[in-house]
Please model this.
Amino acid sequence: MNVLETRRCRWITGLLLGLLVLPAFASKQTVTTDAPLVADSRHERIGELVAQFIQKSHYLHIAVNDDLSSRVMDGYIAELDHNRMYLLASDIEFFEQYRYELDDIVRSKPLDPVFDMYSIYRTRVRERFHFAIAQLDAKPDLSVDEEYKFDRSEAPWADSSADLDELWRLRVKNDVLNLALTDKPWEDAREVLIKRYRRYLKRMDQMKNDDVFEKFMNVFAHTLDPHSSYLSPRNSEEYRIQMSLSYFGIGASLQTEDDYVQIVSIIPGGPAAIDGSLSPKDRITGVAQGVEGDMLDVIGWRLDDVVDLIRGPADTIVRLQIIPAGALPGNGDKIVSLTRGQVRLEEQAAKSDIITVPRDGREWSIGVIVIPSFYRDYRALSNGDKNFTSTTKDVKRLIAELEKQGIDGLIVDLRNNGGGHLTEATALSGLFIDNGPVVQMRNASGRINRLDDPDPVARVAYNGPLAVLTNRFSASASEIFAAAMQDYARGVIIGQKTFGKGTVQNLYSLDQYLQTEDDKGFGQLTLTIGKYYRITGETTQLRGVDPDIILPSPIDAERIGESTRDAALSDDTVQTTRFRAGEPLDSTIDSLIASHSERAKDDPNFQYLMQYIEDNRQTRSRKSVSLNFDTRREQRKASMERALQLENERRLALGLEAVASLEDLEDEDLPDVQLDQAAAIVTDLVILREVAGLPAQTVQVRP
Model:
């Protein structure tokens, strides 16, 4: 469990697809392309400090030696070219000279070899995409029976450029075929692919020294275990924002479109929304600071460089030069002046809803609280702000609102919740139990600490029928909460086995240990310092939390989860701690399973989900595709027909009108089968409690 859990997937996706305009001091930096990639003294100082932290503070006290160096080398090569489509066998052989030197490099030597390896990789990438563009000079023959093997992660490295040429000839042909299957003419497909390949080349040329260093240091940290990581100064700020759900900026989501930075959406309540001058699809061509600052042309810039210019402290002015959405050529730009202010990311906060379940002539109201992450704004809290953002505070408020509406039962939806602050996991648990321990933690020295409900005198916020909905992406803090509810017999866990992350991380701000004369900073290190255990003494590490009632999920647990990671820490147990649990739910769960099983047999949505999962499993098992247009067209046709058949079988069973095409469903919301099943199960639980006349919560002492 992460004391400050890294939510990397979400904000990295933001960087690539639609980064938020975020706070920090603006800098008038210039953008360089195709610049030499070299290490600087900052990187060497960071590497030396990280090596010290690893040896002193990591849970396993891992030695930074030749064995670790060898594993880092394998990880770095996999990070650069996991599918073996760029590097040659001779490149790998050249890299071998550094296999047992990376530990020394990180501890005390120049990082030049790391950058040399990346430079070779970048050269190979350029060669491949220039080759790909040249392949588009002639239309490929899509009538030939050939296969494209898209999974090469275990294949031998190519011996020559000619071998890579053949691999890339097939890749380009597959790209063309994919567009041809959408009825795109050759000339249009060619134009699309040329732009795509050139865009990739441009991103590669815009890589910076810090990007390469962060990539390598992350590999170094991940070699210790999957959850230790290094974040550059820029990404450290992104992380802080994800944990606080607020920032100071203009409140717009951005993405790159060709050479332009384009507005994707305006965040409600932010400065841009209040001003009303910006709209989705507006393109930003220039950025200036203050009322009189020079306007910098940002066409062709990296997205995050443009973000750096738009960022700034509260109550400062930024001016944007905009091409309005839909503007005709020659109509001219406009200048928009905005005052930066606080923006709250409400869409990432906990939300509530009510599902109505008809049963026995009555409609039961089942409350649902969706928790995307365990967030807390520690900066606001440390500044004395009583309104600091907090998962527990939000959920407590939502529970009160739902109870005012008269809910009969409650679902806490933790699907896809990858974790967050440990404090929030224990505090949230306290909303549903009277008091007592929530989780145990063991540090590197073997000492075990018990973390209790942080507010034991507060009243339970909700003591009615409860279910926790999980899937394979429910991890860390989510697992602490789900395990506590299960161990206290406080609620029923429904869904899929959770991720299996039972390790504790601490965040080290490297700026506290190093000093610099500039404002670049040193970033942060997240290091695994312990493991956590359930109050029963069992661990969730590798094992996850097993649901009381299993629901089918399209997420493949054999491909995703802690148990699939090479460097994952082992599982073990500790002693049970004393806690007061509710009456065992075994017989209740047996009854709920029986009712659910009978209901599922006749539920068209449930049966549809089961078949969808099976079809997906068969599709995922393929490692290659045909490059014959007619063959692929027939396969695609059969796949579409199969999907349409399943959909219409579902619709007819529900008494709905069949559709002629899947395109007719574009504006139709598909049912959330897992949530609907969970609501039905909670309704069963409500009825059982009413029939039995059970009190809200009973307790017993366990040793």
Q: What stands out?
A: The longest helix spans residues 629-653. Residues 250 and 272 are 5 Å apart (CA to CA).
